[in-house]
Write a structure and sequence with these properties.
Number of helices: 0
Order of helices and strands: EEEEEEEEEEEEEEEEEEEEEEEEEEEEE
Shape: globular
Structural class: mainly beta
Length: 397
């Protein structure tokens, strides 16, 4: 579960299931915690919240949950791809026939396309998977393997109206290449690996812009650079901040309005992680447009941190408290000082938590591990300030 850059595969103990809610008035908590683990699953993890516009017609508007991820069935087995649509906390199990495990990492705004990966034999590297909704009235999904020819394995991390992005490892190599799929078959792929770099990965896509990382010569994963591929021409821009020994960009935010395919989206922001000079720990980072001079979001009292999700004024991810190997889910309002440790709102005894996505209402989603080692799909539901309270929100638009 540390984290989706490899598989976002789940290896968790069997156990807890039902939907629960905890709120801690004594702490004046700005968040209510909801356990979204399905009743017939022993564990679950949320990977993404559906991007706006929410065109999917939800029969229950009071419970507009549209989430993707994976979970382990209570009757045994490995992770199954899951789609939550807010209906009684009972997600659709979309594990393809013949696959031993699968995961959905992202979906388009109208739930027509879901992307991720899966394997046909336990322990194998993943195949890149695209789930497309049926055109008939059944609402079912069919999974297609988009692993390109010449690649031993691949995975898709994000999707937009114009493309899907991810990475794959060539059969004659051992480093991933950033990939873009423009069609519904494996032959539609384009290899974005950069000249002079031995590997790369594409982790998120806006309308046309793509963010991820590239690995310099020397086979050094820990020296990778955050990269921004601009527009349909995919012009590469190195985002590694000056003096940083490592960085990667994991998510991108674009404001509304018309976006041209041949230029970077105006007002775009990116988040990820990087290792500052003379530090052995990586810090959550926030970039504006293609400016490598990132904002360091690492909060006081934490050795390391990582941001993997972003909206117009907030970022989400996780960090390691000083001297601890445990992870705590975190949310920021564009500065290190604004960080809120979401782990504090979980019941006593939970050891680890991560935030993997956030919606425009400020609700944060991810997972948390209880004292028995069971992993729960979690929503930190934002509780709006009471009337008369001032808001400290800083909108980065």
């Amino acid at each position: 579960m540390r984290h989706k850059k490899i598989l976002l595969r789940i290896f968790y103990a069997a156990g807890f299931a039902a939907l629960n809610s905890w709120a801690f008035a004594a702490r004046a908590a700005p968040y209510e915690v909801l356990d979204l683990t399905p009743p017939d699953f022993s564990s679950a993890e949320i990977a993404g919240v559906i991007k706006p516009p929410f065109m999917y017609v939800n029969p229950n508007p009071a419970d507009p949950i549209r989430l993707v991820g994976s979970g382990e069935p209570a009757n045994g087995g490995t992770a199954h791809a899951l789609l939550w649509t807010g209906l009684n906390n009972q997600p659709l199990d979309l594990n393809p026939t013949g696959f031993t495990w699968s995961v959905i990492l992202a979906a388009d705004g109208n739930l027509q396309e879901l992307v991720g990966g899966g394997a046909t034999q336990d322990g194998e590297r993943p195949l890149a998977l695209l789930w497309k909704q049926s055109t008939n009235s059944s609402g079912s999904y069919k999974a297609t393997d988009l692993t390109p020819k010449g690649f031993s394995w691949a995975q898709i991390y994000d999707v937009s109206e114009s493309m899907r992005v991810g990475w794959g490892v060539p059969t004659d190599g051992n480093q991933p290449h950033a990939l873009i799929w423009n069609g519904d078959d494996a032959d539609s792929v384009k290899d974005l690996n950069l000249q002079g770099f031995i590997g790369s990965g594409a982790y998120a896509v806006g309308s046309y812009d793509v963010v991820g990382m590239a690995i310099p010569p020397g086979d050094q994963w820990d020296s990778r650079h955050a990269f921004f591929w601009m527009g349909l021409a995919h012009k590469p821009i190195d985002l590694n901040p000056s003096g940083f020994t490592m960085s990667e960009a994991d998510a991108i935010y674009e404001p509304g309005g018309k976006i041209e395919p041949d230029v970077a989206a105006a007002g775009a922001w990116e988040v990820g992680t990087g290792t500052p000079p003379s530090s052995k720990f990586s810090h959550a980072l926030l970039w504006q447009q293609q400016n490598p001079a990132a904002v360091d979001l690492n909060p006081a009292g934490f050795d390391s941190s990582k941001a993997v999700a972003i909206t117009s004024n907030e970022q989400a991810g996780w960090g390691n408290p000083a001297g601890s190997s445990n992870t705590h889910a975190l949310v920021w309002n564009s500065t290190a000082a604004s960080c809120i440790d979401l782990h504090q709102f979980l019941p006593i005894g939970y050891t680890d938590s991560v935030a993997t996505c956030i919606d425009s209402d400020g609700d944060v989603f991810g997972s948390a591990t209880d004292a028995s080692g069971r992993v729960h799909a979690i929503e930190w539901k934002y509780l709006s300030p009471t009337a008369g309270e001032a808001s400290n929100s800083v909108d980065i638009k």
